[in-house]
Amino acid sequence: MVIRVQVPSVVDVIANDLRRSVLSGELRPGSSLTEADVAGRYDVARATAKAAIERLVAESMLERSTHKTARVVRLGPQDVRDIYLSRAILEAEVLRRLAAAGTPIPEAAREANAEIRRRWNASSFDVVEPDMRFHTSMVDAVGTVRTSRMYRGLASEVRLCMAQVQGRQLLSPAVIVAEHERILELVEAGAGNEAAEVLDGHLGRARDLLIDALDNAD
Amino acid sequence: MVIRVQVPSVVDVIANDLRRSVLSGELRPGSSLTEADVAGRYDVARATAKAAIERLVAESMLERSTHKTARVVRLGPQDVRDIYLSRAILEAEVLRRLAAAGTPIPEAAREANAEIRRRWNASSFDVVEPDMRFHTSMVDAVGTVRTSRMYRGLASEVRLCMAQVQGRQLLSPAVIVAEHERILELVEAGAGNEAAEVLDGHLGRARDLLIDALDNAD
DNA sequence: GCAACCAAGATTGTTCAGCAAGTCTACTGA
DNA sequence: TCAGTAGACTTGCTGAACAATCTTGGTTGC
């Protein structure tokens, strides 16, 4: 088995760091990002900065139209609805197929859920990372690189939302753990339809709380 | 209602034309595409050619790694399986939701299917375009821009496959029309599970024939 | 006071020339 | 025959430049 490594280019590194800045809230939604800004900040040529910006535009973390300067996207209620409906569509069918095929529950999903519980026990409410890890590992379990990639794109937008609401109260970790567990049980029992139904409720509740938090933001 | 138009940049135009070249089979799978090639072919600067190439790499129509020259992707059986499984996951759940919500069948879907029948009656076997139009219009009917965008990406890869097999015998238009019709009936009757099942068979047959055609290609 | 207008500055789109670094190829010498 | 290598080719990135477009803030006319 050959391991292929990709030497990261300067554009890669800058794009990654910009992504980190946006997701950490360091770059506020709506704030503008000039090519010269980026070029100056990282001390690179403008062409390099441009490429990095264009990459983030392609993954819809920044937005811009011709001759306008890029801005950090601000996701509204309609976006959240769209994102969560897309998630539900993808993940519901994934659960059905995992259940129908009798695919064993991936260890990563159980571990992610256990991590949420640990943080909850440690009185932490910041469970976004393990929560997304739970969902992505379920999707990964069907073994479709394209489906996984699509879901990853949605997950990235969810994290962008989280950056906007900055730790406002969302779904309680206790509820999350319980609902995840219920989903795992149903999938394991081969009850795909029921699992999909629970997932729909789970995502629906998360979506509504997120929209509320968004309304009260800024 | 304001209509926003986007002035296309040179990079846009070149990327579009390259895409057309790849999908038309003018650029064979596996053939390499140098930045200087593209720059020369369209008489633009290398930076511009580079941007266009990178855009097609991002939508996985070309592939390349650092310091290597870009090549037109050649999709193998494993890719086809991956693409069709992703399609099935997305579209099956879409059908379930359309059926459950009682969403009326989009006119575009009926029209696309009628077009397939017309071409079949005119003894034409080239029904890829209206076929994809049928499927995308069903996905569009759920009204999720992100889901539609994801499906469009998959559809693009399907067209890329078609370019590779260059009009080899695939699913018969007569079969396609009949199965599409059956799907519409079931969705209309609110029978989501059954519609999803028929779709699975439909896509499965198309996938197998495509893989066969791919084996006999080049 | 306010709206339309205009000019200056800022920003993007694109080009050109060039260098460093990595990749590929075809030849050489063992 | 084949490993090694020199040279050609290609990509990554830079810096400077210019046109086209956008933005801003002041000015003019009402």
List the helices and strands and how they pair.
The structure is a homodimer of 218-residue chains.
Chain A: H1 10-23, E1 32-33, H2 35-42, H3 46-58, E2 62-63, E3 70-72, H4 77-101, H5 107-121, H6 128-140, H7 145-165, H8 173-188, H9 192-215
Antiparallel strand pairs in A: 1-3, 2-3
The structure holds a DNA duplex (30 and 30 nucleotides).
Task: Give a summary of the structure in a few sentences.
The structure is a homodimer of 218-residue chains. With 218 residues, chain A is mainly alpha-helical.
Overall helicity of chain A = 55-70%
- The percentage of residues in β strands of chain A lies in under 5%
Termini separation of chain A comes to 51 Å
Strand order of the largest sheet of chain A: 1-3-2
Number of helices of chain A: 9
Encode the helix/strand succession of chain A as letters.
HEHHEEHHHHHH
C-alpha geometry of chain A: globular
Average residue-wise pLDDT of chain A: 95
- Pick out the low-confidence regions of chain A: none
What is the largest interface, and how many residues per chain? A-B, 32 and 31 residues
What structural class do helix, strand and pairing data of chain A support? Answer: mainly alpha
Oligomerization state: homodimer
Q: What report would you give on this structure?
A:
Two copies of one chain form a homodimer. In chain A, 68% of the residues lie in helices and 3% in strands. The model of chain A has no long low-confidence stretch (mean pLDDT 95). The first copy, chain A, contains nine helices and three strands, in the order H-E-H-H-E-E-H-H-H-H-H-H. Chain A is mainly alpha-helical. The longest helix of chain A has 25 residues. At the A-B interface, helix 3, helix 4 and helix 7 of A face helix 3, helix 4 and helix 7 of B. The structure holds a DNA duplex (30 and 30 nucleotides).
